[in-house]
Known about the structure:
The complex is a heterotrimer.
Chain A: E1 3-8, H1 17-25, E2 35-44, E3 47-56, H2 64-68, E4 74-76, E5 82-84, H3 94-98, E6 105-106, E7 112-113, H4 119-122, H5 129-133, E8 139-143, H6 150-157, E9 160-161, E10 173-176
Parallel strand pairs in A: 1-10
Antiparallel strand pairs in A: 1-8, 2-3, 4-5, 6-7, 9-10
Chain B: E1 2-8, H1 25-48, H2 56-61, H3 66-80, H4 99-125, H5 134-144, H6 147-170, H7 183-202, H8 206-235, H9 239-245, H10 254-277, H11 286-308
Helix pairs in contact in B: 1-3, 1-6, 1-7, 1-11, 3-4, 4-6, 6-7, 7-8, 7-11, 8-10, 10-11
Chain C: H1 20-23, E1 50-54, E2 63-68, E3 74-79, H2 92-95, H3 98-102, E4 111-116, E5 119-124, H4 127-144, E6 150-154, H5 159-169, E7 174-175, H6 177-194, E8 211-215, H7 225-236, E9 240-244, H8 250-253, E10 257-259, H9 266-279, H10 285-291, E11 292-293, H11 295-302, H12 307-314, H13 318-331, E12 335-338, H14 349-363, H15 395-398, H16 411-416, E13 430-434, H17 438-441, H18 445-453, E14 457-462, E15 474-477, E16 497-499, H19 514-524, H20 536-546, H21 551-557, E17 559-561, E18 585-586, H22 590-594, E19 614-619, H23 626-629, H24 633-638, E20 643-646, H25 648-654, E21 661-666, E22 676-680, E23 688-692, E24 720-721, E25 728-729, E26 734-738
Amino acid sequence: MRYAMAIDTLKCVGCSDCVVACQTENNVPIGYSRDWIREIMTGVYPDLHLEIRSERCNHCDNSPCVRSCPTGASHYEEGGIVKVTKNKCIGCSACIVSCPYNARYIHPEGYVDKCTFCDHRVKNGNKPACVAVCPTKCMYFGDLDNPDSEISRMLNSRQHKTLIPEAGTTPRVYFLF
Amino acid sequence: MTEDIISSGRANHLIDPVLEVWEWHIPSYLFLGGLAAGILFFAGLTWLRKKEAMHPTSVKIAPLIVPLLLVLGLFFLFLDLKHKLYFWRLYTTIKLGAPMSWGAWVLMAVTPLSFIWAALHIKEVFPDWDWKFDLLKRAEQWLSQYKTWMAWAMVVLAVVLGVYTGILFSAFNGRPLWNTSILGPLFLVSGMSGGAAVIVLMSRSKEERHYFAKVDLLLIAIELVLIVHMFMGFLASTQTQIDAAQLFLGGEYTAPFWIFVVIMGLILPALFELMEMRNKKIPWMVAPVLVLFGGIMLRFIIAYAGQVSQWKL
Amino acid sequence: MATSRREFIRISALGSAGLIWGSYLLKAASDSVAAAGKAMPWLNPSDLKITPTYCEVCFWKCAGWVHKDDKGEIWKITGNEKDLNCNGRFCPRGTGGVGQYHDTDRLKTPLIRTEARGKQTFREASWDEALQYIADKMAKIKAEHGPECTALFTHGSGGKYFTRLLKAYGSVNVAAPSYAQCRGPREVAFYATFGRGLDSPENTDIRDTRCLVLIGSHIGENMHNNQVQEMSDSIDKKATIITVDPRFSTAASKSKYWLPIKPATDLALLLSWMNVIISEELYDKPYVEKNTFGFEQLKAHVAPFTPEWAYGITTLEPELIRKTAREMAAAAPAVIIHPGRHVTWYGDDTQRLRAVAILNAILGSWGRRGGYYMPEAPVVPDIELPPFPVPTKNWRMALRGKYALADLALANGLCDATIPTPDLDCSIKGWIVNGTNLMETLPDRKNTMKAIENLDLLVVVDTMPMEITGWADVVLPECTYLERYDSLRDTHHREPAIALRMPATNPKYDTKPAFWMARELAKKMGLVQYFPYETLEEELDHELQQMGTSLKEMQQLGVKNLEKTENLYFAEGEDIVFDTPSGKIELYSSTFADAGFDPIPVYTPHPEPPEGFYRLNYGRAPMHTFTRTVNNPNLHDLMEENNLWVHPKTAKINGLTNGQEVWLENQDGIVSSSSIKVRVTERIRWDSVYMVHGFGNKSSKLSRAHGRGVSDNELITNVMMDPIMGGTGMRGNFVRFLTSKSEESAL
């Protein structure tokens, strides 16, 4: 079981529904976000290109955050989801500093927080809140170990990339383009 | 033109727009830790080489401040934690992949050791010291038998402590500026250099001061070589590394690094030492103070600049 | 400011005693009108952990579910899978609707304008006092001027009940700004062409289209829910998207062809496309033959409008114009030349939308799959009411013959009719404003303020202390859509459906639903017979029973899709009678000709920016709905302020850097009262600047939105009136940059 997410940048309009749905679903405090929208434009008017991405923690296979956590609060769950156990976290920020994607933040209550792939929903067979709400349906989530899953088929049939692969973390959020 | 913007979200406190999770607590602790490592290293080494009589400060006097340094450092670390009530979780596990975990455990070993070493020598510095309790007097006698073991332990643990402060940073591959294995040896040598400087400052023996000033000079030379090596490594590496190095080669940390760390903290003290060796009149306190200043600045600048450096997406 | 009869109340502390937090607990007061202990055949909000609603953040009215946590507090909002407006997925504003409920800046108690220590301020009042004040004033207006001199401006679901009240009182002067400030021209244009308007949501069959032409529409930045969803579907199906926009919008970035048109020249492009399609005989011949009237006149009319002619006007290469025309034709009839929504740009907007309609008509997309489907609305039986009095005056008379083709009241018309002029024997004396921040909605703020000065009564019903509340005599705090029942949603779609809105919790603070306010007012005005049911639940249940369902059932379904009785598309060979004078699709509009307007659109050039000035363009962001959401904590988090898109060349000439704060001065010397950050980007044309509408709020009580960004409306002082239906064209304003605030701006 290896969970992964894919976002089709050809369809993403950067509406930020994923950001606010995650916020309400997971009670993320106002002022913080577990996911975000990045827009990259290249070119000179009128020869322009725009890529829009919805980004979040990549739940890497080889995550530096899990490796660098001195208490074991940062750990892998079933399917490779990276999570933080609140009452083991001492707030030392080692994981924050070791993440090449700056995907983590310190929750006002003191522990480190980030995207959890909505594992509380995934456990019940639902999709993460961001995937479920996306109006352009450009987000896919599923089990990479299952060749028939939607995400496996998307990755097999479309060209895709991950972010900063050279950092060696083996991220599991893919971007279709 | 390329426009790369985060159009919504990611305004997380201390993370955006630039990472600032670690403030003065961490570099201060690293400095104190490095200093402690240096002092303990020389204490153990001098005793093992049976040079205690010649260099009493290094064995007996300087180590007296180490417990204070370590406790203060640990206190700063505690202050830095954002989830303080759970700090004890550090001691429920050992994570070999996490330098912070090593650090926690190494300090667990070094701190009591430094207390004991200081305790064993306190009578030689303060002759009127009285342990009062019988238990303590017997403990002192019993432990004195194991001074060789302790000295060896101190030497080894001091090296580990010194190196670990640098490896702590270099293990975080999220920050390209720290992603160099030179950081470990650099911080170790810097710590030892600081330890030597403290010994010079505290010593009342001219001979001891001269000796450790020369040791310091050697260590400074090694540090300069390591720094050059570090930059060579960055500039010969990937674009991300090259961009990270720019922070010190034209970027916002250029002036502080070269002026405070290199010129004031390394080159000037080296010059002063050389001049003193040629019997030019230089107040003997100047060089060690500059070395200590350089040591603090090195850690502060690397800590802050490192958080600013980012992988290019 | 000199003491005016009515001052804008700017102070942040309310009244003398600051009673707000005292008596009103943050927990919802149990204020349900249903008598305690009486068993009703439907459920209470507290019985349900998940309650149905339809969203009020924008006009799309997506149906969804409000989820509560274990403590009964509103937790999150999700879409109703059965709803065709959203297909189970709410947009960011709908998802962030919880913020409207939690926003502590909400209006909490009725307020009445009073004077204290020489300054005008608000004092808190009880509902009884506030409503009595209104009833008394309205009676006075009726006695002195006639009931027709009271008007209602509404853009909220509560408008239905205030409309009923007003009609019972004797006035039909009810306007929604979404007409003359937004979609009015296209309604009139499409009605004149096809015999029916577009209304909301638009009946564009995007999910099955093979070519989507967006001309002045930025789907993806506007968040018209199922249209954005369907555009994504069409991308999957490899449909061609053609976007015409001087700005590289999100839609433009997903288009096969982006036409970076010179602003204000769209009509030339449309005419030229017609020229290519007709001269190359690419139009749908059988469809045109069977269904349209006036083809020969059209053909002759567009003959001179070649792509080469259009190139000189639009700066678009002739080959590009030809290629895109052919692409459209190749996809026909599964092609949509999108009508857009906010189309009040330059004053000739009805004509431009006529061109859009004509182009669709000759490509045969109207009534065809992938083009425009024929929507069907549910039939919701009206409740029995006594007959309404017949007013002797109405808004149309106040227009004195102008804008005869407008089919709905003009908000700006009512506003103008509030300013006494010698040729009107009376002017409007009272306004009720519900759910629309008129200061930011109507262009030419000075005109709006002048009108307000002449009012005897200004009642504002709102959930938030928007700027318009600062001008009111009485402010009535409405509870949010999450805390009330409202009329059944009866908008049209591919299939007819009704949706229920019920409260998730009781209203917070001392807020009330519009139905209750209208009914209580009716009681005080002796008109309660027009509100025969004591509670809205009873009224709804009665309506639903007549439709074969019940309130209880709807509380669990949320949405009920009804049986379709009309065809979605025209059948092959079907004889259709269109609601036009000729009974056909009028390419040549006899209605327009009879009224003295061009029967087929003619291109007229519009004023260009003077030296050193740039055209002010504005648009939408997907996480905001104008000023309504900018203070919402969740949505403010996504976008805190607007910024000004400036081309690098423009920035260089004016010495601007990215992130710099600037003030804007328009061609009439009006300076923005707040500053805006510059965003230097290649995505905007060098002759224009662009910002998102809805920012630059002046109300200090909007703690998050106050003073953030700039209000484009403040700078829209040159209004280009559409002579056909009175739409207020807003894109004829030009600005230049000020790097410091040198003069105070007028409010």
